[in-house]
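R.M. (postdoc): so does anyone remember the format we settled on? I'll just put the structure tokens first.
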């Protein structure tokens, strides 16, 4: 029996994730943010003051990668961070400058979403999102 490594779920998922991330990075480059940083800004819009551990879990990121991205966003004045009242957690929220940038980024993100829908059909896009969400919950 010969294994067909071209059918490996892990390899194909990683390749697709990198390709999609590169595409979104290109769309957002003019604004000086990466796709990962945009995702953080977007999640802070609706979930302010979440501890780093929750953000890391939600974004399936290593805490060190998340912290590095939060540091960049904080240095740029896009988010503000403070220590949690208990423990040594770090809580983040968008600043007015961060909200302004996010407002400017959303049309670019919408265009990137539309471009991805053109790469595959609307139905395949919806199915892909559902499958990816299900896999992320494993």
């Amino acid at each position: 029996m010969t294994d067909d490594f071209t059918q490996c779920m892990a390899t194909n998922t990683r390749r697709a994730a990198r390709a999609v991330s590169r595409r979104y990075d290109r769309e957002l480059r003019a604004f000086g943010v990466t796709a990962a940083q945009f995702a953080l800004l977007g999640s802070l819009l609706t979930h302010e003051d979440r501890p780093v551990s929750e953000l890391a879990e939600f974004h399936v990121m290593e805490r060190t990668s998340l912290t590095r991205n939060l540091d960049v966003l904080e240095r740029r004045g896009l988010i503000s961070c403070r220590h949690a009242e208990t423990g040594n957690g770090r809580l983040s929220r968008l600043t007015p400058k961060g909200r302004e940038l996010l407002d400017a980024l959303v049309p670019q993100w919408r265009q990137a979403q539309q471009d991805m829908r053109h790469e595959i059909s609307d139905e395949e896009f919806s199915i892909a999102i559902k499958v990816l969400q299900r896999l992320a919950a494993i």
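R.M.: ...and that's the designed sequence above, right after the tokens. Also worth knowing: The mean pLDDT is 91. Residues 96-119 form the longest helix (24 residues).
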